[in-house]
Structure formats: structure tokens, C-alpha cells
Amino acid sequence: MLSIEEFERIGAAFNATNQPVILDYIAVVALSWMGAFLAAYLVQKAKNRANSEDFDRLKSELKENTRLVKEIESNFSENFWIRQQVWLKKQESYEVILGLLHDIEKYVYHQVTDFEEWQYINNRHPYFGFYAHEDVGNKKAWERDKQEYEEKKSNPETVAESEALKTRYDRALSEIFDHIDLKAIYLDDRVEAEMEKLKQSLSRTDAEEDWEDHFDRISLDTMRTIDEVRKISRAELKLDA
Length: 241
Hints:
This protein is mostly helical. It is 86% helix and 0% strand.
């Protein structure tokens, strides 16, 4: 059996023999741990950097998108305001034109009515019927109606009314073309074309056209022009949309 001294000598020899191996093992473990830590650190740092770069990129894109949205909103608001103002100008212009056409229509109607009254007294009164002029009663009725007609025509109020209608008619014809020229940028070209046709119709006299046909024509042309301008204005103002 070995003595205590011998065990101590053997242990000392063993320790002396394995000390470098243990130190190497410890060093390897330490380096491995440090390497793993460093690798994890570098990976995390790379992720953080990538996230930071992504965040900066997203922030830049968001800023650009916000700018574009605001620009679109601004352009939309501006375009909407312009369209609204143009619509209002069109509405005002068509109201003026239709108002002036109404003055023209009133005078044309007055002319037609005057002609129909004159024609009745001078051509279509029952007195002028077949053999009716030989009837004393019809003759007296015709003379009475003719006198009333002439008194009405010469009445100062009737004369003043006719002159006022004629004045408004002449002014309307002049102003309507002035207005079309001034507001041409807002108006459909067909409006001016329709007014030119009406003007020619109202001023035209035809030797082969009798007075009845003349007044029928200008009355129908006036109504047709008003209807056409109304259709154009409704389409322009999108009232039927």
C-alpha cells in the first residue's frame, strides 16, 4: 500500500503533466463563446442597421406619398373651383340670352297678333263671307268692329306699348350678339349659329311670301330658336345628367 507521501508525489506529477491541456481547453471554450457572442452581435447589428435603413426608406416614401396626395388634393380642389366658376358663368350667360330671346318673342307675338286682328277686320270678318256682305246686320257688325279696331290702334296706350315692345326688341337683338361675343369662351358655338339664323329670318322679306306666311314663319322660327337654345343650355349645364 502506497504511503501518503507517494500519493502526493503522484498527484503533483499528474498536475504538472496536464496543466497545459486544461489551459488550452479553457482557452478554446472561451474563444468559442466569444466567437458566438461576436457573431450574434454582428448579426443583430446587421439586422438593426437593415431595419434602420428600411425605416428611413419607408419614412422617405411616406413623405413623398404625402406630398403627392396633397398635390393631388390641391389640383383637384383647384380644378373643381375652376369648373364651378365656369358653370356659374355659363348659367348667367344662358339666363341673359334666354331673357333677351323672351323680349324678341314678345314683340314677334305682338306683330303676329296685330296682323291677325287686321286680317280679321279686313279679310275674314263674317261680313266678307259668301253673300254675307249683303246682310245689313253683318255690315253693321263689321263697321262697329272696324271702328273699335281703329280706335284701339290709335289709342295712346296701345301706341306706347307697341313702341316699348319694339324698343326692347331692337335692343335685345343688339345685346344678344354683344353678349355672345363677350361670353364666347363659355358658350357653345351653336348658340351664335342659332341666333344668326333667327336674325336672318326676322329681317327677311320675300316678294313671293304673303304676310300670313311671313308672320307664321317668324313666329315658328322664334319658338324653334328658343327651344334649341334651351336644349343647348341644359346640355351645357348638365341639367339632364
